[in-house]
Amino acid sequence: MSYAQYGLIEAADFNNLVGGNPVTTANRLNTVWATGGTNAGYGQTPVANVAIGTTVTATNWASLVNNTSNAAQHQGSSITSVTAPATGNTVAFLSAVPTNLSTIYTNRLNAASQGSTSSNTATFGSAWSSAITFTHTVTFSSGDAARYFFNAGGQLAVTCSHPSGTGINLLFNGLASNVGTIVLSSPTSGAVTIAGTSYNGVTKIGGGGNSPTISTNSGYFGLSTANTTLFTQTASTGPSGYLSTFIRVIAATNGTQGSNGDAGSVITLYTLWDEIPNGLSVSSGSATTVTIRPPSTTYISSTWGSPTVSGTVSGS
Hints:
This protein has two domains: 11-106, no CATH class; 118-315, no CATH class. It is of the alpha+beta class. The chain contains six helices and 13 strands. A six-stranded antiparallel sheet has the order 8-9-10-11-2-13, covered by helices on one side. Helix 3 (58-75) runs parallel beside helix 4 (96-106).
């Protein structure tokens, strides 16, 4: 029988609410809480199914209720409060349980807060007059670790800077500032809410200048081994004839690594600074920073490990 008021809570009913592992079916706890697949799954310890024909205990039910609540609090989702039954007590029908599971599935890529960041800044230490490329590599221990990171609200952020000056240096100082912060999140469509801010797959925060070209749906799950241009900002002030100069962010991964729908365990971000036309001498000090913004571990444990970021720069 299906889970309903006045009915017995059978093992099949409980298992239908919890789901197996891995499972990708909507509105199942383990789809969001445990391994899941692609853009679902935090990698937490799955809630076990109950053998058919055995009793669904208060302990089993408490695991379902408490982990649903933890997922909701991690996301910042509003759900109906449900009190987990105590061992030895009768498990009552709770109509809010399926509704709460639907809510945490819908909001699975949202996050109420994030953890402590880490970053790498690469700086070009000499003058240049053509183009320079910053290469930052973000490495996870596995494809699933990367998937859990982005599913739980993790992000990568790119910022640029250049010393103030006159002429072409004034141009690059303003251009770098206008880039703002370029944020790579999970989505390939729509938006997620992380720490109170709405993000597409690629989002510009702050900055200014000309309207940039942004590939908004090229979040983590939209990346592959092919280079994908995420963002391009052109200069808005500077020497006459040099306003086609731009800063561009490009991304690629090492491709799918596991069997659960990851997009890669290594993400490479290329930030190209291109002077157009070539020729004017740009002073040293051009810099690009990539920052790792990990998910919060207040309500879920870190299943994504400690991703690392390294950076280099080349050009002339």
